[in-house]
């Protein structure tokens, strides 16, 4: 292997100035907030690591983190297999394939707050189609009162909104598999499962890693949709990390704790992104020269 | 056709590709000196500008009373250390171009990757110490240094 010549990075320096203003300095101010107490009007009092200490021992943050992880896990467990399944059954070419692609892309084009509003109304028992229909089946469904109902509504909404993304990415991965692989499998009389397990799945690995990364990040940062549908309720049942953070920072104007919270949130996201990035680049390197 | 073991084989002798001129190391001394002076000056300035009481430097008081964001010496030093580390590794990368290696983590890492892993891991170690151990926070720093040594040696 040749040593890496990193000198080209110096050419990025001008961008660094821009990034400094848009990201680095704001991030530095968050760090600065996190160690101080403020009552507004630019008056600050040193608090050291006090906020971090408080938060690490507060049930509120751990509960929000737990809900967030549970939500991301559920969403990924449903959307990834479902997306792959849909991709496998989409028409390969012709008019129907184009139609499918357009239809699948539609939910992705809708702004987050509109998705929230659609489902907020769709799920209402008094006027919403879904709410009325479920109630007519004799199920006691009310997402503003019952925590489970609220969770189901939000998960279904997210699945409706984002499964297409996984399906489209998986479809792109499938289309790039040369026909020769399928012919070889046919000659070997491979079962449908074997074709999926040993040809399609390995060939889709790259796009699936990206799809899972995207979905994880988006679901881990989700704010708008649950905020519009349930507002974090009933109680705190759907108060995810970002909702809690906004409540803390803007609702209560507790800038110090909110900043400490943001930093921990940021660290988790940084860790996960780094892990995914490392896995992806390592995969690329292994697959590259073949 | 007789085979004479001493006759020239007719083959071109293999060239030792590694036996070429030694790699030219770029000269980074001027850059390193400039950066050292800049960062050293900045540090000196920060320490000079820090507010003081009778008991010495007060770490948590604003560097500029009433100024924007009430930056304190402690926060400034935190960022100074990170900036200094990045610049140090910049100079090292220019002076000693390196080959990525595979360590205990099973991934290819360069020096910069190891620094990143160290810093990110240190953040989590500090939080874990704060949340789980009821001791002075500098204990976490010791732990981080051990972690850093491990990462740079084996990762």
Automatic annotation (TrEMBL), chain A:
The keyword Membrane applies. PROSITE patterns: ABC_TM1. It is a multi-pass membrane protein. Residues 65-276 form the ABC transmembrane type-1 domain. InterPro entries: MetI-like, MetI-like_sf, Sugar_ABC_transporter. It comes from the Bacteria. The chain crosses the membrane at residues 69-88, 100-122, 150-174, 206-224, 258-280. Its main location: membrane. It is found in: Cell membrane. Keywords: Membrane, Transmembrane, Transmembrane helix, Transport. Belongs to the binding-protein-dependent transport system permease family. This is Carbohydrate ABC transporter permease. It comes from Rubellimicrobium aerolatum.
């Amino acid at each position: 292997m040749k040593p890496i010549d990193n000198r080209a990075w110096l050419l990025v320096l001008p961008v660094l100035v821009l990034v400094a203003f848009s990201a680095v300095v704001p991030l530095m101010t968050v760090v600065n907030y996190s160690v101080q107490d403020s009552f507004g009007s630019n008056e600050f009092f040193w608090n050291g690591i006090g906020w971090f200490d408080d938060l690490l021992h507060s049930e509120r943050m751990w509960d929000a983190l737990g809900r967030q992880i549970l939500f991301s896990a559920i969403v990924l467990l449903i959307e990834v297999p479902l997306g792959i399944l849909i991709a496998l059954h989409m028409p390969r070419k012709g008019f129907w394939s184009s139609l499918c692609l357009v239809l699948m892309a539609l939910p992705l084009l809708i702004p987050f707050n509109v998705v929230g509003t659609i489902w907020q109304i769709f799920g209402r028992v008094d006027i919403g189609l879904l709410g009325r229909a479920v109630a007519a089946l004799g199920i006691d469904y009310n997402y503003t009162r019952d925590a489970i109902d609220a969770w189901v509504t939000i998960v279904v909404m997210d699945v409706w909104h984002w499964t297409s993304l996984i399906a489209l990415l998986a479809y792109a991965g499938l289309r790039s598999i040369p026909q020769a692989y399928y012919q070889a499998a046919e000659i070997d009389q491979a079962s449908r499962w074997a074709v999926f397990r040993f040809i399609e799945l390995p060939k889709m690995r790259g796009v699936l890693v990206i799809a899972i990364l995207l979905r994880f990040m988006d679901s881990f940062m989700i704010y708008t949709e649950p905020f519009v549908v349930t507002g974090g309720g009933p109680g705190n049942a759907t108060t995810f990390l970002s909702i809690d953070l906004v409540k803390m920072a803007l609702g209560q104007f507790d800038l110090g704790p909110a900043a400490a919270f943001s930093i921990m949130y940021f660290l988790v996201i940084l860790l996960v992104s780094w892990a995914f990035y490392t896995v992806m680049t390592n995969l690329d390197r292994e697959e590259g020269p073949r | 056709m007789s085979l004479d073991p001493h006759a020239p084989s007719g083959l071109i002798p293999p060239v030792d590709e590694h036996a070429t001129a030694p790699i030219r190391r770029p000269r980074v001394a001027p850059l390193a000196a400039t950066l050292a002076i800049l960062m050293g000056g900045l540090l000196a300035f920060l320490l000079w500008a820090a507010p003081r009481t009778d008991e010495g430097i007060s770490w948590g008081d604003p560097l500029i009373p009433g100024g924007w964001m009430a930056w304190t010496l402690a926060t400034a030093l935190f960022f100074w250390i990170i900036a200094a580390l990045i610049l140090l590794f910049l100079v090292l990368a220019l002076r000693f171009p390196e080959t990525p290696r595979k360590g205990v983590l099973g991934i290819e890492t360069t020096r910069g990757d190891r620094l990143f892993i160290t810093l990110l891991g240190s953040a989590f170690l500090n939080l874990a110490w704060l949340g789980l151990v009821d001791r002075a926070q500098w204990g976490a720093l010791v732990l981080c240094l051990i972690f850093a040594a491990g990462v740079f040696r084996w990762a």
